[in-house]
Amino acid sequence: MNKRVPAFSQMQMWYHKHIIHIMIFFVLTGLPIFSEQFRFLAYIFGVPANWLAGGAAGSAEIFATGIQVARTLHRVMALIFALVTIPFVLVMLKDIGKWDIWPNRWGIGAFFSGMGEVSKIYLSFEHGRIGKYNAGQKLGAWVIITTTVLMAVSGFILMFRDIYSAGLVANMRAVHAGSFVVLGAMLVVHMYFGMHPINRHGLKAIFRTGEIDEKTVKEHHPLWYEKLKKE
User: Fold this and answer.
1) How confident is the model at residue 36 (pLDDT cuts 50, 70, 90)?
2) 92, 68 in Cβ contact below 8 A?
3) What is the reported pTM?
């Protein structure tokens, strides 16, 4: 009988599932604030809100109401995000030394070697000499962590901008927008490779079972398999 290897805890699975919902609402409420190119989203929020409030039906009024509703919902989602993320981070920090997203080796040579493994895995569909995560997944994780922290800090300052200087608020608005663009692009890449056929075992583990069979670990993640055997 093939053994099952624990890959993700119940908390990791729960957080991963629900952070998707939070991010969707963040994007829908943040885009009309971010750029006028997405002002149609403001009308989607503004039409029902303006009707319920019995306000004027002019385009400008509906747009203004929609922006205000989007901003309010964005802040509500920020609160929910904090309530969900802070306990998750505190639990994860207890085992920070065991995080599998740390590089196995450092240096330019190690980076290009890791990217070569990524190319082999996703372009040639070959098994690479990798641990639980390949170099691309580790890099993506750090980009997501960094941009999320920057968005959280800058978002907090923007939420309470009246107590900060105008210069700091302007800088934080740029940081918030820039981090959003980078994070959005990385999430698209993350979803694409997460649903790649070669990652189907990991996709099933994070959303359903939390486990990967030992044979798959040995074939797809030989360094992780060797580490598990030593432990």
Assistant:
1) confident
2) no
3) 0.85
